[in-house]
TrEMBL record:
Enzyme class: hydrolase
Reaction equations catalysed: ATP + H2O = ADP + phosphate + H(+)
Gene Ontology MF term list: ATP binding; damaged DNA binding; DNA helicase activity; double-stranded DNA binding; hydrolase activity; telomeric DNA binding
PANTHER family linked to this entry: KU AUTOANTIGEN DNA HELICASE, X-RAY REPAIR CROSS-COMPLEMENTING PROTEIN 5
Gene: Ku80
Enzyme Commission number(s): 3.6.4.12
Sequence segments annotated as region (Disordered): 477-507, 564-585
Domain of life: Eukaryota
Protein species of origin: Drosophila kikkawai
Keywords: ATP-binding, DNA damage, DNA recombination, DNA repair, DNA-binding, Helicase, Hydrolase, Nucleotide-binding, Nucleus
SMART domains: Ku78
UniProt family annotation: Belongs to the ku80 family.
UniProt-listed InterPro entries: DNA_bd_Ku70/Ku80, Ku80, Ku_C_sf, Ku_N, Ku_PK_bind, SPOC-like_C_dom_sf, vWFA_dom_sf
Name listed for the protein in its UniProt record: ATP-dependent DNA helicase II subunit 2
Length: 722
């Protein structure tokens, strides 16, 4: 008899003093767990404990603690009974340590079912009501020694990266409203992590933690691959991918009111025959061949030897991708430090790829169950970062796979049209990458500090986003290669370069249209051995390199104001900086540098960030108009113009107006080139380096772009063409 996989005891806070939001989320979290286990047909045991029940309840197991009547498998009736159970009469009192104590007793009772894993989920509001911690050390030691996993879920949890380990660390959201009792309760909740390896998380992460079950199959193992009598390779298998949600298929023979009859017919080599009763032998079907009934088959068989067993070489396309099931994907490499096996494996992989072959084997994963699984080894050549490897995939041989289709990853309803893909493209372009700083000490609502803010998207669109990101990366690389080609042929005329840019834009549009046409967004089968997770991580890493994350002072100010509002703090004005009244006049033609400096100081003194940005944008627009007006004068004051442009350039850096200044620099070059102000260009713009702004250390592409901007020969040739 197979043992049950898990025994999960859920402890819920139903006290009257607990926040209603916490109690509602706790019930929803528990119901989601039950529904998930029912739908996936998991043989897991579940029970419940309520903390904060009235003392007049009959079935109290501890002060103000009530447990569910029994431990049982998840059913729809259990879900309905749970909703009735949580409506027990509540009171103000209740100790969460008493709830854990009752849950531990339930875990002891469940040992008769031989669960493979034991877990307790505590959903509690660690508020300002006092708790008794006299038995804290005893209960936590019991949890640790019994190897029972504890998951603690509450509402006010954020995450930072640990200073030493760099791993996500759960903390309580600090608030000045916290009383000393609440701080003490939070301190003991945090100490559960170190005392008994508990997982402290918010409700959303609590669900993920409960559903995240480690795969029973080993993460790594050693085996020998024997091919013939002379080839023996020592291999090491490492799991590379696993599919934790298995598909349950059920064959229904008939409805309740439908009469089902069985018709017996006999065939020999496709021809129907009518045999005599004495010619028939009772048997059962195994692979399409009638096998006579034999008592000897009921005797226990000799166990198969564990490990990997060679069966034969097959053509790579002999097994369709539909017959690969997604339970797991192992990566087979040579054993660490075994040079001979590494050389043999490298030669084997090269031979398999040259002949377009794969290897058919059978594998025993567990010596206890001793069930052989057919696997296929697919070769993968060595590269700069990986040695020669074999991808080991299971073959689905069960008969039901021949009669039933795999569920589609994307159904017809989730197919993406070109308009939807264009919308995702615009979404990526409009995403504020400045809001994702690598500030590991800034509290966040999720454990992993991912720079790309795509985690909140619906799962249907995840792969579509990665498809378009892949296209954008390809386009970016093409742009960089075209820039290098333009630099090598810098002596060509400008009309040719503009034509090349138009061709490149058309090429990009055609590439996007072709991508939309080529992508089949309703694939029925998942693709192995290239897991989507690996491709997504690679694409995300490439995007992080290509799209620089800028340090945004404005975003930090908004975040700080939001945190202060949540913690109930009044936003304090900075006392030392008093606002300078705005001058009524603007930047004049007589003394533009002095006027700009005076008005800019007034703008900087404004404490409201939104108002400050609006005033600066208005001032910057005045300065840009003034610069082009001064350029129209017959007698040009180059020194004054240079100072004004230099001050405006520095202010754009302070106010993050990079795009505005880049546009202004392009317009300035056009105006100077139109009036043929060669001396002004050399003495002011080039000497003072008033070209486009570059963030951080300039790259090779930045230097080439600046060289093309300052190059006076280029725009002289363009004037001659005009």
């Amino acid at each position: 008899m197979a043992s049950n996989k898990e025994c999960l005891i859920i402890v819920l806070d139903v006290r009257n003093c607990a926040a209603e939001d916490v109690k509602l989320k706790s019930v929803k979290c528990a119901s989601e767990i039950i529904k998930e286990k029912i739908v996936c047909d998991k043989k897991d045991l579940v029970s419940f404990v309520l903390v904060g029940c009235d003392s007049r309840e009959k079935d109290l197991k501890a002060p103000n603690v009530v447990q569910y009547e029994k431990i049982q498998l998840c059913t729809w009736n259990l879900l309905l009974d749970f909703f009735k159970f949580v409506n027990k009469t509540a009171c103000e009192e209740g100790q969460w340590l008493d709830g854990l104590k009752v849950a531990l007793k339930l875990q002891e009772e469940a040992l008769v079912f031989k669960p493979a894993r034991r877990r307790i989920l505590l959903l509690f509001d660690f508020n300002s009501f006092p708790q008794d911690y006299a038995k804290f050390n005893t209960i936590t030691d019991t949890l640790f020694n019994a190897d029972i996993e504890l998951i603690v879920g509450t509402h006010n949890i954020s995450y930072i990266d640990g200073a030493e380990s760099g791993q996500p660390q759960a903390i309580f959201n600090f608030s000045r409203k916290c009383s000393p009792v609440e701080l003490e309760n939070q301190k003991y909740a945090l100490s559960l992590v170190s005392r008994c390896n508990a997982t402290l998380c918010n409700f959303k992460e609590a669900l993920r933690t409960v559903f995240k079950v480690t795969n029973r199959r080993p993460w790594s193992w050693n085996a020998k691959l024997h091919i013939g009598s002379k080839i023996s390779i020592n291999l090491q298998g490492v799991i590379a991918m696993k599919n934790q949600t298995s598909v349950k298929l059920k064959k229904v023979w008939g409805e309740d009111n439908e009469v089902v009859s069985r018709e017996t017919r006999h065939f020999i080599k496709g021809t129907e025959v009518t045999p005599k009763p004495e010619d028939l032998v009772t048997g059962y079907m195994l692979g399409g061949t009638p096998v006579p009934y034999d008592d000897a088959l009921l005797e226990p068989k000799e166990p198969h030897p564990p490990g990997l067993h060679f069966f034969g070489f097959i053509k790579r396309d002999a097994v369709p991708d539909e017959y690969f099931c997604g339970d797991s994907l192992y990566l087979l490499v040579h054993q660490k430090g075994n040079t001979a096996s590494a050389n043999k494996l490298d030669a084997l992989v090269r031979a398999l790829i040259a002949s377009d072959r794969a290897i058919l084997c059978w594998k025993i994963y567990s010596s206890k169950f001793n069930t052989p699984r057919m696997v296929v080894l697919l070769p993968r050549l060595a590269d700069d970062s990986n040695p020669a490897t074999l991808n080991m995939l299971e073959v689905s041989y069960t008969a039901q796979h021949h009669f039933w289709d795999f569920p589609a990853l994307r159904t017809a309803k989730s197919e993406s049209s070109e308009e939807q893909l264009q919308a995702i493209d615009r979404l990526i372009d409009s995403t504020d990458l400045e809001c994702s700083l690598r500030d590991t000490q800034q509290p966040r609502s999720w454990p992993q500090n991912d720079l790309l803010p795509f985690d909140g998207l619906p799962s249907i669109f995840e792969q579509n986003v990665m498809d378009i990101l892949e296209w954008k990366v390809i386009k970016k690389e093409d742009d960089q290669s075209s820039k290098k080609e333009d630099d090598q042929s810098s002596k060509k005329k400008d009309d040719q370069s503009s034509k090349k840019k138009d061709d490149q834009a058309k090429k990009d549009a055609d590439m996007f249209a072709q991508m939309v046409k080529d992508k089949k967004f309703s694939d029925v089968f998942w693709r192995v051995p290239e897991p989507l997770e690996e491709k997504s991580k690679q694409a995300a890493a490439t995007v992080k390199k290509l799209f620089p994350m800028r340090y945004s002072r404005e975003w930090l100010e908004k975040l700080k104001a939001k945190e202060q509002a949540e913690n109930g703090e009044a936003v304090k004005q900075e006392p030392p900086e008093k606002e300078i009244p705005m001058p009524s006049d603007g930047v004049g033609l007589s003394n533009p540098v002095q006027d700009f400096t005076r008005i800019l100081a007034s703008v900087r003194s404004i404490t409201n960030a939104t108002q400050k940005d609006a005033r600066f944008q208005a001032l910057a627009a005045q300065v840009r108009v003034l610069v082009f007006t001064l350029l129209e004068r017959k007698k040009l004051n180059s020194k004054e113009l240079g100072e004004l442009i230099s001050l405006y350039r520095e202010s754009c850096v302070d106010f993050n107006a990079f795009l505005e200044y880049e546009k202004f620099a392009d317009e300035l070059k056009v105006a100077v080139r139109a009036k043929n102000l060669k001396e002004f260009w050399q003495m002011v713009v080039m000497d003072k380096q008033l070209g486009p702004l570059v963030l951080g250390e300039p790259t090779l592409d930045d230097e080439l772009a600046l060289k093309a901007y300052y190059g006076i020969d280029n725009w002289r040739e363009e004037m001659e063409v005009e």
